[in-house]
Prior knowledge:
The protein is α+β, with helices and mostly antiparallel strands. It has two domains: 4-51 and 128-168, Alpha-Beta Plaits, CATH 3.30.70; 56-121, no CATH class. It is built from four helices and four strands, in the order E-H-E-H-H-E-H-E. It has helices at residues 14-26, 56-81, 94-121, 151-160; strands spanning 4-11, 34-38, 140-147, 163-168. It has a four-stranded antiparallel β-sheet with strand order 2-3-1-4. Helix 2 packs antiparallel against helix 3 (94-121). The radius of gyration is 26 Å and the shape is rod-shaped. The model has no long low-confidence stretch (mean pLDDT 85).
Amino acid sequence: MSDSNTLLAVFEDIEPAADGIGKLHELGVADENMDVISGIPIRPAILERPSAVTRVGWIALAGAILGLLLAVFFVWGIPYLFPLDAGGQPIYPVPQLLIIMFEMTMLGLMGFAFLGMLVDSGIPSYTPKEYVPEISDGRIAVLFSCPKEEQRKFVDALTKLGAKSVEPAEARQL
């Protein structure tokens, strides 16, 4: 859609918003050209939308593996590189290894999960975002792109389904 407009439809409740999203699907608007803005979390299945794809789990798993490998290096690698005879003590202690492995694995997991969440969320963002003050009052907004020549058809269809307003959207700096 090279010659398209971005419209913002504001709904009072979840049911009209779900009906409006269904109508947008019927009119040919793809999910990647549509965003739902809400002040409360709404499950994607309620609005007939696909679930968000996230890579946070894989990033956290990579951090856990990195932490585990780092712990093994600390407990076994350093004594191998710099052997130190400590009066009959084992060079490679197992009980300490278990504790350090657990701690370093959890540290890597939590640190990478936090960083993965930030990366996946797009934080920080320095571009203007769409903000509608009515969202703070409990309303639900649907932001979508449609062809300019068919804009009137989209406005009429969503207004019939209960949209309080369907207007061109403008991005404003928060």
